[in-house]
């Protein structure tokens, strides 16, 4: 079978899955179709005192050495979302040898900015302190999120005050990964998000892009080129440019076939032909947040012959 035929077959399979998702509960469909029998799972582990202060852990069945750890925050406009719906993300990451943590956090209208960020920080602090018991390496800790969850990951990675309040230094992070994240959105145009961020008095401190500094951890930023919900050029592109301007390593990727929603769905086994999202995440983590790639590039420049 040729590469083109294989690609077309993969896209056809994706079309069948997407059709099923349209008729069924979309995330439950992805969970049902994403293998997980070879993974160890712990569900409903408390990281705080609130009913939504719980997380699930996905780990490879066999790990010779402690594995890199990824804390994933889901999207939902800060008004909806359940960790159970994102089992496919945990299984996908565990299938690549990582320990994945999927955390719930409080949502609007129960809370608004910045309270849900304190929840997210508590989940990360719990992970740093306790994940070794589940085969994870707390020295290789990454944050990851999609949409609103990417915002949460960005804020924790870029504004050290949240992790500090949870008893953790921001230097504990090896990197962060944002999928279709909103990082620069004042004035708030989305009507659902407006009360979450106290519109029209949205504080500038609520914007991740305003917290970029030379001390920020490396980043992998991925967006759908045709994202109609979160402008990829302003948000992903703007964040990447500001990180680079501050000397921070960043990888910036745009995929054509996916949209805002199917970008995260492409992590699931049946939809990976849509975009190499999981491959990009795997390569970023395996390269120590790009540090190995950056070192190789520097060595190549030093070794290059002079004029």
Provide the descriptors you would attach to this structure in a database record.
single chain, 307 residues, alpha/beta, Rossmann fold, 8-stranded mixed β-sheet, 10 helices, globular, disordered N terminus
Topology:
Elements: H1 3-23, H2 26-33, E1 39-46, E2 54-60, E3 67-73, H3 87-95, E4 99-103, H4 115-130, E5 136-146, H5 148-158, H6 160-165, E6 173-179, E7 219-224, H7 233-245, E8 250-255, H8 260-265, H9 277-286, H10 291-303
Parallel strand pairs: 3-4, 3-5, 5-6, 6-7, 7-8
Antiparallel strand pairs: 1-2, 2-4
Overall description:
By secondary structure, the protein is of the alpha/beta class. The chain has one domain: Rossmann fold. Helices cover 37% and strands 19% of the residues. It has helices at 3-23, 26-33, 87-95, 115-130, 148-158, 160-165, 233-245, 260-265, 277-286, 291-303, and strands spanning 39-46, 54-60, 67-73, 99-103, 136-146, 173-179, 219-224, 250-255. An 8-stranded mixed sheet has the order 1-2-4-3-5-6-7-8, sandwiched between helices. Helix 1 packs across helix 2 (26-33) and helix 4 (115-130) crosses helix 5 (148-158). Mean pLDDT is 89; it is low at 1-13 and 15-24.
């Amino acid at each position: 079978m040729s590469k083109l035929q294989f690609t077309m077959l993969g896209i056809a399979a994706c079309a069948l899955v997407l059709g099923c998702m349209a008729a069924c509960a979309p995330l439950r469909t992805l969970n049902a179709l994403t293998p997980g029998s070879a993974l160890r799972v712990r569900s409903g582990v408390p990281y705080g005192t609130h009913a939504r202060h719980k997380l699930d852990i996905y780990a490879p069945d066999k790990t010779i050495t402690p594995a890199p750890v990824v804390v994933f925050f889901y999207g939902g406009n800060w008004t909806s979302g359940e960790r159970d719906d994102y089992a496919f993300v945990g299984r996908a990451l565990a299938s690549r040898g990582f320990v994945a943590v999927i955390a719930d956090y409080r949502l609007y209208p129960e809370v608004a900015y910045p309270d849900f960020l304190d929840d997210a920080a508590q989940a990360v602090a719990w992970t740093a302190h306790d994940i070794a018991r589940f085969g994870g390496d707390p020295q290789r800790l990454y944050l990851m999120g999609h949409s609103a969850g990417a915002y949460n990951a960005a804020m924790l990675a870029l504004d050290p005050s949240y992790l500090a309040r949870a008893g953790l230094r921001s230097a504990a992070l090896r990197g962060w990964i944002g999928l279709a994240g909103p990082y620069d959105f004042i004035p708030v145009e989305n009507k659902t998000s407006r009360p979450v961020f106290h519109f029209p008095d949205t504080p500038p401190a609520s914007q991740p892009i305003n917290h970029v500094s030379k001390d920020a951890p490396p980043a992998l930023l991925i967006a759908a080129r045709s994202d109609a919900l979160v402008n990829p050029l302003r948000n992903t592109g703007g964040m990447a440019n500001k990180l680079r301007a501050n000397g921070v390593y960043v990888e910036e990727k745009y995929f054509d076939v996916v949209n805002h929603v199917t970008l995260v769905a492409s992590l699931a086994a049946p939809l990976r032909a849509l975009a190499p999202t999981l491959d990009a995440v795997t390569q970023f983590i395996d390269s120590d947040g790009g540090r190995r790639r950056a070192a190789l590039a520097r060595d190549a420049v030093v070794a290059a012959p002079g004029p």
